[in-house]
Design goal:
mainly beta; 17-stranded antiparallel β-sheet
Length: about 450
């Protein structure tokens, strides 16, 4: 792939890290009945009133999480910014500051239409939206290889770089949901949401293994991996067989799929202040047809890298050289198109809430685990909820996850005719940004605000 394409992807990822909003209803609002969109977290939650989501007014949902930041890769030397690969930065200073796996994930939902209304003895929802997922995992062993190379004394070294991958799936989701009470069991409600999916664009590069054997005589590289693009898109190659671009002249529907959300909520008659709930969201798949496929397999002799971070070299030029070197390390060859079915990123939510003072205050625990490529994410959140008036609710929380700990808060105003909300699930002590707006450290800045129109008599 041309360096310009790779640089654009890297820039998009870094810029994405500066933004954030929950890709679903805020976890802070899981226990607040006034938060209209909490049915996205558990389809068993019915709305207090009918609602309609208007594009623009209700905003879009963007969720970003990363365990690395600008300070992991960029260093200041003599009033200049240089990459950690520069000879001016000691290997220990650069490599010791990297996570074992540098992970990034982005989730973007843009609503086209969403409505909720009482019907058929329960509450029904209809939603149409576009959904996009981007996942990235870069093992620190790749940067160790780029930084250290062969032993300066013996000229010998061995590097094993595993599970280098990047993927993106983009599709349109048409979802029909319904929740209702179970008459046979007092206090029990259940719900389901059926989803029809239309695949728009998919791309994936999964490099299972890169082995580099260095000696004084030669460098040998062995690779195993696959890259694919959805139908209508194809990779283009230069005269040497390297990928140098993407042809999108015949873009078309890439595939179809199906998904389901399942949920249940139970308040025991013997313990009316206790509510337990469970939800399994995005259980399903997309079948991508006629994926254009490329593979990298086998071994070849490598002649070595260009010099990175020489005196006076601009940071942008250093990035150019690094990306060119990585491109030379992984050589793809075209393969026959094929069909492939991929599972959705499934999320399991398990929660319990205990209320006091006639539900004016409650305490909730929420466990959320997301499964799927490129890695599994788990989070535990403790929430204190306040309902001082029928038109105002609030929540504060603390969370611990596989990406660290954080606090958050949510304010939601729910008078007749509107649901106005502002909240942030994740606020961390290291939430600091450079002048360019890029995060200095790994972070999740999940902010969501908007207005949803409500109508009809409240439940």
């Amino acid at each position: 792939m041309k360096t310009s394409y790779i640089k654009s992807l890297v820039a998009a990822i870094l810029v994405g890290c500066t933004m954030g909003a929950s890709a679903q209803a805020l976890h802070s609002g899981y226990f607040l009945e006034g938060m209209v969109q909490r049915h996205e977290l558990n389809p068993a939650f019915g709305g207090e009133a009918n609602f309609v989501v208007i594009p623009g007014l209700s905003g879009f949902n963007l969720g970003v999480s990363t365990n690395f930041g600008l300070t992991n890769f960029v260093f200041k030397r003599n009033d200049r910014l240089v990459l950690g690969l520069s000879s001016e930065v000691p290997a220990s200073e650069f490599l010791n500051g990297l996570p074992q796996n540098n992970q990034f994930q982005l989730q973007l939902d843009i609503p086209i239409l969403s409505i909720g209304f009482r019907s058929f003895g329960g509450f029904s929802t209809l939603g149409i939206k576009t959904r996009s997922f981007v996942g990235l995992n870069i093992p620190s062993s790749l940067f160790a290889f780029l930084k250290q190379g062969a032993d300066p004394t013996t000229g010998i070294a061995r590097y094993d770089i595993d599970n280098l991958n990047v993927s993106t799936n983009n599709y349109v989701e048409i979802a029909l949901g319904h929740s209702r009470k179970l008459p046979a069991l007092e206090g029990f409600s259940y719900g389901a949401k059926l989803k029809f999916l239309v695949g728009a664009f998919s791309a994936q590069a999964n490099i299972e293994h890169i082995g580099v054997e260095m000696s004084q005589e030669r460098w040998m590289v062995e690779t195993k991996g696959v890259a694919s693009l959805s139908s209508g898109l194809s990779l283009t190659y230069d005269e040497e067989g390297n990928i140098n671009g993407v042809d999108a002249s015949s873009l078309q529907i890439g595939g179809y799929g199906f998904g389901v959300d399942l949920g249940a909520v139970y308040t025991p008659a013997a313990l009316p202040n206790l509510t337990v709930s469970l939800a399994l969201n995005d259980l399903g798949f997309i079948s991508w047809s006629k994926l254009n496929n490329s593979v990298t397999s086998g071994s070849f002799e490598y002649t070595g890298f260009e010099t990175i971070g020489t005196e006076g070299t601009a940071l942008n030029d250093q990035l150019d050289v690094m990306l060119e070197d990585v491109k030379e390390l992984i050589k793809f060859e075209p393969n026959a198109p094929h069909d492939e079915t991929r599972m959705l990123q499934t999320t399991l939510n398990v929660a319990a809430e205990y209320a006091i003072f006639n539900r004016m205050i409650s305490f909730g625990l929420l466990s959320s685990t997301r499964f799927g490529a490129p890695y599994t994410y788990a989070e535990g959140m403790a929430v204190v909820n306040f309902r001082p008036a029928s038109w105002f609710q609030a929540a504060v929380n603390g969370s611990v996850s596989t990406q660290g700990s954080a606090v958050g808060a949510l304010l939601t105003f729910c008078p007749n005719g509107a649901n106005i909300f502002f909240g942030c699930d994740y606020i961390t002590p290291n939430m600091r940004f450079a002048a360019e707006g890029l995060p200095l450290y790994g972070t999740r800045v999940n902010l969501r605000t908007g207005i949803i129109i409500t109508f009809g008599k409240k439940k």
